Amino acid sequence: MNTPENISNTPSVPLEKSDAQWREELTPEEYRVLRQAGTERPYTGEYWDTHTEGVYQCRACGSELFTSKEKFDSHCGWPSFWAPLAEGTVRYLHDRTMGMDRVEVRCATCDSHLGHVFEGEGYGTPTDQRFCINSISLRLVDPDDR
After folding, report:
1. Which of 58, 61, 110, 132 is catalytic?
2. Which of 17, 33, 107, 114 has a Cα-to-Cα distance from 134 of 20 to 30 A?
3. What are phi and psi of 28, to 5 degrees?
4. Is residue 132 annotated as a catalytic residue, yes or no?
5. Domain membership of residue 109 as a residue range
């Protein structure tokens, strides 16, 4: 896989909160996915089949991560984007869990787990990438309400 060049295993996180603070602010399921790198079941999340225009923010910290302009139907059961909103809004880590070699996507602001990015799957997108993101990691907002 031709992975993004800024893969890092060392977090450089500007927003720091204690585990107790995260547990207080997030629901148990949000905490499991965002802070413990869990995954929601496919075809169950709020945004997997949404076509509403707007900006997708990190559910944990509110940072803007993706827009509906980069969202596409991959039919994988999770929201899919072909690129993040801007350079530096997400960060990448090697993920070798579950016997796989993948690239994990995290919020660059709060280090919350978002999902994974895959390349070379043959989707007709400008980047040939699929950012497979958990709905529960995101909050869709109208661009006029920001």
Report:
1. 132
2. 17
3. -55, -40
4. yes
5. 19-145
